[in-house]
Amino acid sequence: MLTKEDLYTIEELAKEKRRVLELGMGPLGDNLFKVIRTLGIQLIQIPFLNEGEESDNPLAALYLSSKEEDGYSICYIGLNTTDYWDKQIFALAHELYHHFESSDPFVLCRGLDHSSDIRELKANRFAAEFLLPTEKLVHEVKEKNKGNQDLKGWPTNALLRLIAEIHCDYRLPFKAIVRRLQEVGAISKTVLENLLKIDARDHEGIYYTLGSNINLKAFQQLNTRTNLFGAEGENLGKLIENYEEGKVSLSELSDDLNLFGKSLDDYKLMEEADFDDDLALLFKEEED
Questions:
Q1: Residue 260: inside a domain, yes or no?
Q2: Taking every annotated instance into account, which residue ranges of this chain make up the domain IrrE N-terminal-like (predicted)?
Q3: Is residue 20 a part of any domain in this protein?
């Protein structure tokens, strides 16, 4: 359970990071991937296979910080792309907390919906606050509720429409939005518990129907498992830079590229290696 001091500290941290990164207070959504690049974090997308269709403790993401000999740190986030798109976005924001605050060079994050670990609870709260700042959520509620922050008396259908609009705009998962509404005092604990019983992924359910009618393209994307595999071009470029700077051997680079379905030949590095070998042989013959 987080204390009031914890909640205040996390809210201020989220505000500070948005300010430093010049993000304003509006929706981030897919732009979170640009934030990851801006921070120099290497993003690796891997479809991790969890046991069972819906594991109770699925691997969401992992964070790794590796300090090189020259003191420079390389940071990685491994993102499980078998998860839904909105949960991937939330997991990225969650890992950002570990990037900003954790002294542990390796953090493995499982079951973000059910974690009781204090560090993970803090990371979850940061992700929710970073993606949907309290003041913006309160504004969204008051704008729809004649200036009132309390949604008491709202019918379930109306609540679900509001949640679906926030879902499409801010890209948070359904459960995260529902919890945020309770955190800012917009709904009671009883309403929270009732809403959490709804299967938001059920294509035949009321919530999915409402969300699809609000923004079909965005809503379907958020409810899609991407199953992407690989790394962004910039990140693969970093692997090549490490080789060019002598930090890794050609064979090590080849092994690293193979992890992402790439080869030395894709970057014309085999030709370069052959040329270097020929040049070295020529110099040796001249010396002889």
A1: no
A2: 76-181
A3: yes
Single pTM value for the model: 0.81
- Tell whether 173 is covered by a domain: yes
Give a yes or no: residue 230 inside a domain: no
Residue 3's φ and ψ, nearest 5 degrees, are: -85, 170
